[in-house]
Design brief:
The protein has about 240 residues and is an alpha+beta fold. It has helices at about 1-65, 65-85, 90-110, 145-160, 195-220, and strands at about 85-90, 115-120, 125, 130-145, 165-170, 180-195, 230, 235-240. The protein is elongated, with a radius of gyration of 41 Å. The chain starts with a helix and ends with a strand.
């Protein structure tokens, strides 16, 4: 009797263990087989949501096309209004010279004389159109009236003729009660527009010179005993030999 009960218990234990093993195998297979597909679907859903958001932003940007064009036209008008105030020049050196001449003319209008003027390093702002910042450092000595210096600074920054800015100002005086011996060192900057045609012409001329220089060297190497003469012709150069 006791043995039969043990046999029933063992059979029941074996059945439960078998069921547990089968369930464990099913769970493991489920994890291994369905999780990758689940992760792929999640990633796909995330991508679809992101693309939907981008599509919405693109539609909003397209719907605002008219406003963007109006803003662009406004910016162009603003640039055109300021273009007349830029220093128009063919080269960087000429732009710096024009800035110094302009500063000297403003100083004369203010009753001052520029003692020393020097150009500073330029900075490129834009390529098309070719815009750059040109700098000048000026020294004004023996200022008898401080009002003249005030007038000079006012005409520089608030005059509508040219876009010139005061970047740095240093004033020295020999005393506190008198303006005698007052001197000022001023660093100024202005926006200059360099003509593109002048740059292209310069590059074209340089390439032409290099081309004919190579022809002269090759001609000399082919006949070292001859004399090479360079004759100017329109529109280029010609080489004659004696």
């Amino acid at each position: 009797m006791m043995r039969q009960q043990l046999n029933k218990l063992n059979k029941r234990t074996v059945v439960f263990l078998s069921i547990a093993v089968v369930l464990l195998i099913v769970i493991i297979c489920d994890r291994l087989s369905f999780n990758p597909f689940h992760s792929v679907s999640v990633n796909l859903n995330d991508k679809l949501v992101l693309k939907k958001e981008l599509f919405t932003k693109y539609n909003i940007a397209i719907s605002r096309k008219g406003a963007y064009e109006a803003q662009l036209a406004k910016l162009k008008d603003t640039y055109n209004s300021y273009e007349e105030k830029l220093i128009q020049s063919k080269t960087e050196d000429l732009a710096q010279a024009k800035l110094q001449d302009y500063v000297k003319s403003v100083a004369r209008k203010s009753g001052l004389i520029i003692s020393r003027s020097s150009a500073q390093k330029v900075e490129n702002i834009n390529d098309k159109p070719h815009l750059m910042l040109v700098y000048a450092r000026v020294e004004i000595n023996d200022i008898d009236k401080i009002t003249k210096l005030q007038k000079f600074l006012y005409l520089i920054e608030y005059n509508s003729e040219k876009l010139v800015f005061v970047d740095d100002l240093k004033i020295k005086s020999t005393g506190f009660t008198s303006t005698k011996g007052v001197s000022a060192t001023i660093k100024l900057s202005a926006v200059a527009k360099i003509e593109a045609k002048a740059v292209e012409k310069k590059v074209g001329l340089q390439s032409t010179v290099e081309h004919y220089r190579g022809r002269i060297m090759s001609a000399d190497n082919s006949n070292s005993g001859s004399i090479c003469m360079l004759v100017w012709q329109e529109p280029g150069f010609a080489i004659d030999r004696i």
